[in-house]
Amino acid sequence: MSKPLNIDRLRKEFPILKTKINNNNLVYFDNAATTQKPIKVINALDYYYKNINSNIHRGIHSLAEIATKEFEKTRSIVKKFINAKNEEEIIFTRGTTEGINLVANCYPKKYLKENDEIIISEMEHHSNIVPWQMICKEKKLKLKVIEINKKGELDLNSFKSLITDKTKFVSLVHISNSLGTINPIKKIISICRDNDIKILIDGAQASPHININVQELDCDFYVLSAHKMYGPTGVGVMYGKSKLLNEMPPYMGGGEMIKNVTFNKTTYNDIPYKFEAGTPNIGDVIAFKEAINFINEIGKENIQNYEKDLKNYTLEKLQNIDGLKLVGDAKNRIGVFSFTIENTHYYDLGLLLDAKGIAVRTGHHCTQPIMDKFNIEGTTRMSLAIYNSIEEIDYFIESLKKIINK
Q: Is residue 38 assigned to a domain?
């Protein structure tokens, strides 16, 4: 059962929120780019390097064993967080981008042949476009694109019309990083199942905001980044069904991903280690579990309820500002708002807000096809997180109005 959050107490867990920007209190609304880190994450990283720094999986000395144990604890916690069936299905990467690239490189090499088709959408981040373009060029595959409507929602009829007997793979974003749209992933996966199509879900924006249950979704792959969910940068997760991971070739060669190496033949390690070549980002992976613990302690239901209130409040305020145009108006969305201001360039607006201590993102947000769809160059994007407050939103709205009315 959800309960009201003590937002003042929660904010105290984030040291950076005490920062002054241009003599103003920091108001951080760039959460879709990266979230801030609670003190327990910062302390966990600090503790690792001060007390247990060692390589993992390969040593019998005490530090190596402690580091390995803490590293693998994170794998166990991630498994529970997304409800994977087995820990071996959790592959650590550098982030969502590497997770997508891993699948885009390894899955087609095993399963796809010339003229097979891959489907993505107009809504995708560049990280879920470019890797598929590259592998399609290499293997002579065909890339198809689902259209989005004027509200910034996926057109399911467009999706269905693209499917043929050569359609073998779909890769879609769970929640848009520039529009905030929550896609009907369960419906899309059901369509894929009916047509024997494998599917990857980009969960970079979903992981801190909504519940993720990969078994219930029945997706084949799911990727996310720690830094979008209050964890360190340089760490991500690629979930894959064990049958597929066992059959796919490795992504990179090197240490850890092997069983035996000779000049005649190399045999590969079992999953997940087959896909984790070299020394990983050990300290940050260990600290990542504290970010998940932070989310779990608050509770996803509590997070969703609080962020829903923030979203609705912000949406109402933005819609009442003359000269402001929201880009995307999806019914099912999170607190990510891209907008343009009449007669004000988004870059100038970002600088003017920064002068007041307000951090927002400006530009195309690595989603140039979306900007092309709406016939704009870029937007100002405001994105909310659990530590944001009504008071911050009011200050932001007041600042926007002053800038517009100058």
A: no
Nearest residue to 364 (alpha-carbon basis) of 98, 26, 27, 33: 33
Same domain, 224 and 361: no
Number of domains, the chain: 2
Q: Report which secondary-structure segment, H or E, holds 309.
A: helix 300-319
194 and 268 share a domain? yes
Token pair of 131 as six digits = 């890797």
Same domain? 291 vs 318? no
d(CA 235, CA 213): 20
86 Rama class: left (phi>0) / alpha (psi -120 to 50) / beta: beta
Specify the CATH number for the domain of residue 229. 3.40.640.10
Confidence bin at 1 (pLDDT 50/70/90): very low
pLDDT digits (tens, 9 = 90+) for 360-395: 999 999 999 999 999 999 999 999 999 999 999 999
Active-site residue, selected from the candidate residues 106, 136, 192, 366? 366
Identify whether residues 190 and 82 lie together within a single domain.
yes
State pLDDT tens for residues 7-20: 999 999 999 999 99
Two structure tokens written together for 396 = 């932001």
Model pTM score: 0.96
**Tokens in use for 247?**
């059959």
- CA–CA gap between residue 6 and residue 3 (Å, rounded): 9
Structure tokens at 313: 């409040």
Cβ–Cβ under 8 Å, residues 381 and 178: yes
CATH of the domain at 310: 3.90.1150.10
Query: Does the active-site annotation cover 106?
Result: no
pLDDT of residue 350 exceeding 50: yes
Judge if 325 and 206 occupy the same domain. Answer: no
